[in-house]
Write a structure and sequence with these properties.
Layout lengths: L1 E4 L4 E8 L2 E8 L2 H10 L2 H7 L7 E7 L4 E7 L14 H11 L2 E4 L11 E6 L2 E6 L10 H16 L5 E6 L5 E3 L4 H5 L6 H20 L4 E5 L2 E3 L1 H8 L2 E4 L4 E3 L13 H8 L1 H10 L2 E3 H7 L4 E2 L5 H13 L3 H15 L5 H9 L5 H11 L11
Parallel strand pairs: 8-9, 9-11, 10-12, 11-13, 12-14, 13-16
Antiparallel strand pairs: 1-6, 2-3, 3-5, 4-5, 7-8, 14-15
Helix pairs in contact: 4-6, 6-13, 8-9
């Protein structure tokens, strides 16, 4: 057993309904959720927030997202029914709850497998996607291991920042979702669709909200979900011949989860072109559009990231974390991660998407594509 802040086990969501606060914690792992279900009761949360004067606290479970939702009645001084991203009162309560110190088993949380390598190269933690035979495609296992790796980096005192890259010099940084697993969701089992979208959304949110600076060192193609990984990092450096793009619409899918992050980097006009055409661009175009900060040779890719890491190390850790928090607040993203995950998952259950993906797997044009 270890005494750790609740944030080691879960991330938070919150909002309000008039005078009532709605605070949720979403566990990073199944083991963590099982522990929270047993120990994080309504009574524990009520005692923790006793000074707020809440008349009562109720707990609700959302097992499909490993979440516990707590309704704190009469805990707010009037609210405006807004999300964690824009509601100051609800956000403060969520952050306060995550600071609660709990005793929890964490032995397996920091495990990183062969498909994700975690190394310390002072002052950075380097997280490497190591699934080259699958072009580092985002399988369920890879998403879980990436989540663990970023959690490890967040709590690693030797890591002042994080560099995310792919194995070697190519052929891919990350080619998007694992197609074999995606093929398996075309049937009637919708639970997998929702679960997959929620876990990827949580990974994006974890990277984007990490209190330490993050760098994407893009060694090859970063497409669809792989391009999403680039957009949620603070900085990005790329090799010239890397390919970036969001071809989801060509399969009947929607790149919902990365949309707000892409908008911040490139602006609406370029985002519309990338998202609506599905065209791929190279590293130099990505630099011109603002998707990456610098383009360099494969030989200098990690050296450039290392140089940025040294610059980060000159900043105060708390000052960097606060700056990131303020940048996040100033972005004024109105749509929450859960809503974006739903928007990403829903098209996968449509006939259009099934037809588009089937055509893609069969190497045929989509049924709506113009036939020459």
């Amino acid at each position: 057993m270890a005494s750790v802040p609740l944030s080691e086990l879960a991330h938070g969501r919150s909002g309000d309904k008039g005078n009532h606060a709605n605070v949720a914690v979403i566990a990073y792992t199944d083991e963590g959720f099982a522990w929270l279900r047993e120990h994080l009761t309504a009574e524990v949360v009520a005692a923790y927030f006793e000074s707020l004067g809440a008349t009562r606290v109720e707990r609700f479970e959302a097992a499909n997202v490993r979440g516990l939702n707590f309704m704190l009645y009469d805990a707010l001084a009037g609210g405006a029914s807004r999300s964690l991203r824009t509601d100051t009162q609800g956000k403060t309560l969520a952050l306060a709850l995550l600071r609660m110190v709990v005793g929890a088993p964490l032995a397996r949380r920091h495990h990183v497998s062969d498909i994700v390598q975690y190394t310390l190269r002072s002052p950075a933690a380097v997280i490497t996607l190591n699934r080259p035979e699958k072009r580092n495609a985002l399988s369920r296992a890879l998403i879980a291991e990436l989540t663990d790796a970023f959690l490890q980096a967040a709590s690693d005192p030797a890591a002042r920042c994080v560099i995310l890259t792919g194995t070697g010099t190519g052929p891919a940084f990350c080619a998007g979702m694992d197609l074999e697993e995606l093929r398996g969701t075309l049937g009637p089992d919708s639970d997998k669709v929702w679960a997959d979208a929620t876990k990827l959304s949580a990974l994006y949110e974890l990277i984007y909200t990490l209190p330490k600076p993050t760098i994407a060192a893009v060694n090859g193609a970063a497409v669809a979900g792989g391009a999403g990984l680039v957009t949620v990092c603070d900085l990005a450096v790329s090799v010239p011949d890397a390919k970036f793009g969001y071809p989801e619409v060509r399969r009947g899918l929607v790149a919902a989860m990365v949309l707000p992050h892409l908008l911040r980097h490139v602006g609406e006009r370029t985002a519309r072109w990338l998202l609506l055409t599905g065209e791929l661009i190279d590293g130099l175009s990505a630099l011109r559009f603002g998707l990456v900060n610098q383009v360099t040779s494969a030989e200098n890719l990690l050296a450039t990231a290392d140089g940025w890491a040294k610059l980060f190390a000159e900043g105060g850790p708390k000052a960097l974390a606060t700056t990131k928090e303020l940048l996040r607040g100033c972005s004024r993203q109105a749509v929450g991660g859960d809503e974006l995950a739903k928007a990403s998952a829903a098209p996968r259950l449509t006939d259009e998407c099934r037809a588009g993906l089937t055509a893609f797997f069969d190497k045929k044009p989509a049924p709506w594509a113009k036939q020459e």
